[in-house]
Amino acid sequence: MSSNTRVLYIGFTSNLPERVRQHKIGYFPGFCQKYNCHRLVYYELHDDAESGISREKQLKSMSRRKKVYLLEEKNPLWLDLSEYEEWLRTDNEE
User: Fold this and answer.
1) Is position 93 within any domain?
2) What domain range includes position 26?
3) Cα(2)–Cα(11) distance, rounded to whole angstroms?
4) Torsion angles phi and psi, residue 8, rounded to 5
5) Which stretches in the chain have pLDDT values below 50?
6) 81 to each of 1, 2, 3, 22, 52, how far by Cα in Å?
7) pTM: predicted TM-score of the whole model, two decimal places
8) Domain count along the chain
9) Which residues of 59-84 are buried (b: 16+ CB within 10 A; e: fewer)?
10) Residue 75: inside a domain, yes or no?
11) Which residues pair with 2 in a beta bridge?
């Protein structure tokens, strides 16, 4: 997740569409709410929680420069992917 000023937040979830919605409405007090990290700019899918959590820890240990490089390989404009990824939307969203 990212803010409009490109503050980055990395987290793991087993339900990405729901977690994105929660961040967008400021459901969780703390870092994301404080820095307004409500834009999905990068994500990875994993087959199981263990590999996802392991990757989360790996990403968190990277320098910001490496994180930005990885993100910009897939999303050079820092677009909010939740607005473009069909599988993230619910039936009542357009």
Assistant:
1) no
2) 16-85
3) 11
4) -105, 145
5) 91-94
6) 10, 11, 13, 15, 19
7) 0.86
8) 1
9) beeeeeeeeeeebeeebeeeebbbee
10) yes
11) 8, 39
